[in-house]
Design a protein that fits this description.
By secondary structure, the chain is α+β, with helices and mostly antiparallel strands. The protein has 3 helices and 8 strands, in the order E-H-E-E-E-H-E-H-E-E-E.
Length: 131
């Protein structure tokens, strides 16, 4: 069962620049920057109340870089929280939703995650995540 929105993910060309702009504009603390070398990715999550704004930057030739090259900085995905990620994957598949991840994997923050294809939300991938 979906418990709520965990974060909204944005792909950007320059994480440091966007992070500074968001935290300065909204007067929020600067969060730590996380790296996932095997994904060629850096990320930071700015928390606004219960919802996070996840800012993703490509450090190589990965999926985030391809997105930014094609579309510029922008909305990359919406993450929803679920305690039963494996069951939720099966539920979505039964509804005809195509998955990028057939099984959960460990995300940049160390939690189990799985992504749908972009068609799930009319062009925006849905990320399932453990709370």
């Amino acid at each position: 069962m979906i418990k709520g929105i965990g974060h909204i993910g944005f792909a950007v060309k320059d994480l440091d620049e966007v992070l500074q702009a968001i935290t300065k504009t909204l007067n929020l603390p600067v969060p730590p920057i996380l790296e996932k070398k095997e994904w060629n990715m850096r990320a930071a999550v700015v928390q606004i109340g219960e919802i996070g704004i996840e800012i993703l930057e490509d450090c190589g030739q990965g999926m985030i870089g391809q997105f930014v090259k094609a579309k510029g900085n922008g909305l990359h995905h919406i993450c929803v929280l679920t305690d039963k990620i494996e069951e939720e994957i099966e539920t979505l598949k039964a509804r005809g939703v195509e998955m990028m991840d057939e099984k959960p994997r460990v995300g940049i923050r160390g939690k189990k995650i799985a992504f749908t294809k972009a068609s799930a939300l009319g062009g925006v991938p849905l990320e399932l995540s453990e709370p």
